[in-house]
Amino acid sequence: MSARRGAWRVTRGLPRRRARLARLPATAVAMVALPAAARAGTPMYYLKTFGAKGNVSVPLLWGLLGLSVFVILAVSILVVIGIARGRRVRAGPPGMILPVGRSSGAMPWIYGGLVASAVALIGFASWTIAVMATIDQPGRPAAFTIEVTGQQWWWQARYVDPKNPSREFVTANELHIPVGKPVHIKLVSRDVIHSFWVPALSGKTDVIPGQVNETWLEADRKGVYRGQCAEYCGAQHAHMAFRVFADAPDDFAKWWNHELQPAPQPAASAKLVALGEQQFVLRCGACHAVRGTSAGGDRGPDLTHLMDRTSIAAVTLPNTIGHLSGWIADPQQNKPGAKMPNLDISGPELTAIRTYLATLK
Ligand code: HEC
Ligand SMILES: [Cu+2]
User: Fold this and answer.
1) Mean pLDDT of all residues in the chain?
2) Closest ligand to Cα 354
3) Could you tell me which residues come within 8 angstroms of residue 145 by beta carbon, excluding any fewer than 6 positions away?
């Protein structure tokens, strides 16, 4: 109520459109100053960052924006002054011919302009190069590597511990990283060009078939950061998202150890789960892997610990039993064009398979 009255007081007397314009800077300031909680609903917001990379890039963004605005204003003002002065000179007798050439006092402006532009351009080029050098490699060596494979329209992630090859595993669409530690990311594509982007942590890195691109991530605060494919890659490009969970180092170590475990064997008494596993291996195992079973497919996400994930189909749906059933029954309705076909699963089959999947914790 009081804020409204304040806004009214400031803009009172101005015509409507100008009143709206007058409020624009306040809106922009409010966006930048938005508290973290309010920004949770705008996960692609990249001006507030939570990691070593973004923290040095964002000041450069503001610097370049400030310089651009300053140049536009300075040039506009000088043009207006020039026009005003030009009119005054022309106000001579009719038919008078103005001399063309180096009028006195013009050259210092040109030299001054050249020097000022050169200083600004060299200064900002140096700043840009310094930032690029800083974000190229993390300050400390990365503890491990995640090999991310982009494909239409999801992300496969292979965790690799260079010191211990037996600690390797594969998951999809939800990455976990330890807070405050740089993580090395290797990017490859299985089909077309994608782009790996976690706005709050890092800029974009293209994911190109036949080429390995590298980047790294570091989060300085616990949280969930949204990632998104940032290079148009076909029908479901917008649904090719992922999540990065920055965990406390202990939680992260626990998570990794848990992911290494194979899927639990169905208990002898759990008939429906055992039936579901059988049907899963038969109907789904050509495309999906569940470690500990003979399902070893690689065309779709590894489902060994499906229930540890908060979302399915590259953050298209929340991972609830309802959405899971809906997805298995009709993936093409949920994500038209997705590389998982409709499989004409019968009602009883669906019940068994979904009951089995619910045990993949
Ligand atoms: C022809 C290959 C293929 C078959 C067969 C197949 N899937 Fe999929 N599945 C995929 C692909 C590809 C995706 C990723 C789709 C996307 O996100 O765009 C997927 C995604 C999923 C997901 C979401 C996983 C995640 O983490 O996002 C689940 C769950 C799933 N499939 C279950 C099943 C079940 C159950 C069956 C058997 C009834 C099955 N799929 C059969 C290819 C297949
Ligand atoms: Cu894409």
Assistant:
1) 87
2) 1
3) 159, 160, 162, 183, 184, 185, 186
Sign of the alpha-carbon torsion through 149, 152, 155, 159 = negative
Residues with CB under 6 A from ligand 1: 153-154, 172-173, 236, 280, 283-284, 286-288, 299-301, 303, 306, 309, 312-314, 324, 327-328, 335, 338-341, 343, 345, 353
Structure tokens at 64: 């370049």
- The pLDDT value recorded for residue 342 is 95
174-178 and 317-318 as β-strands: parallel, antiparallel, unpaired? unpaired
In the chain, the domains with their CATH numbers are 2-33 (no CATH), 40-89+137-248 (2.60.40.420), 271-357 (2.60.40.420)
Between CA 303 and CA 185 the distance in angstroms is 22
Q: In this structure, what token pair is assigned to residue 27? A: 């809106």
CB under 8 Å to 316, separation ≥6 — which residues?
239, 241, 334, 335
123 is written with which tokens? 């200064």
Distance CA 46, CA 200 (A): 5
pTM of whole model > 0.85? no
Name residue 254's amino acid. Answer: K
Asked if 115 and 159 touch (Cβ cutoff 8 Å), the reply is: no
pLDDT at 51: 87
Residue from 243, 187, 213, 225 nearest 51 by CA: 225
User: Which ligand has the shortest distance to the CA of 194?
Assistant: 2
Query: Which residue type, as a one-letter code, is found at position 104?
Result: S
Ligand 1 atom nearest to CA at 335 = 18
Decide the pairing of beta strands 174-178 and 183-189.
unpaired
Tell me the C-alpha distance between 194 and 251, whole Å.
30
Nearest to 336 by CA among 258, 223, 235: 235
For 32-65, write each residue's pLDDT tens digit: 555 555 455 677 888 888 988 988 999 999 999 9
What type of residue sits at position 165? Answer: P
Query: Encoding tokens for residue 60?
Result: 């450069």
DSSP 215: E
